[in-house]
Design a protein that fits this description.
The chain has 121 residues and is α/β, with parallel strands linked by helices. 33% of the residues lie in helices and 21% in strands. It has four helices and five strands; from the N terminus they run βαβαβαβαβ. It has helices spanning 16-31, 65-74, 83-88, 105-112; strands at 4-9, 35-40, 78-82, 100-103, 117-120. Strands 4-3-2-1-5 form a five-stranded parallel beta sheet.
């Protein structure tokens, strides 16, 4: 049985609930010792742009998005950001937060190839 888990997030500004809950579950996955990857695509790429996560705070009982992302990265989670989705939005690699890296679909498929479970938000 694989100990890998992927959370694919395609929302940020358009539906902040989904990005917040996506990162919350990604951190929960780390808590049960899963090798966890967050893949940000379409509108979700904004979550990895410097200064954008600070704009999203749903309020209690949820942590602000910036704190959730920091907790995920500090816990050993990886964030891959869809490179074509960045390009169409004029987001450059230097615009990303530390710990987030641009990647294409091949990197996601390599992670999933071993049978990793994946959920989408």
């Amino acid at each position: 049985m694989t100990r890998k888990f992927c959370v694919s997030i395609s929302n940020c500004h358009k539906d902040p609930d989904k990005v917040v809950i996506g990162f919350m579950l990604a951190s929960a996955s780390l808590g049960v010792e899963q090798d966890t990857l967050v893949f940000l695509t379409t509108d979700g790429v904004w979550a990895a742009v410097q200064g954008e996560a600070e704009k999203i705070n749903l309020g209690k009982p949820f942590s602000p998005l910036k704190e959730s992302i920091e907790r995920f990265i500090q816990g050993g989670g990886r964030i891959l950001v869809c490179r074509p989705c960045m390009e169409i939005r004029a987001i450059h690699p230097q615009d990303l937060i530390p710990g987030a890296e641009p990647a294409g679909g091949t990197a996601l498929m390599e992670f999933l190839a071993d049978g990793a479970n994946c959920i989408s938000f």
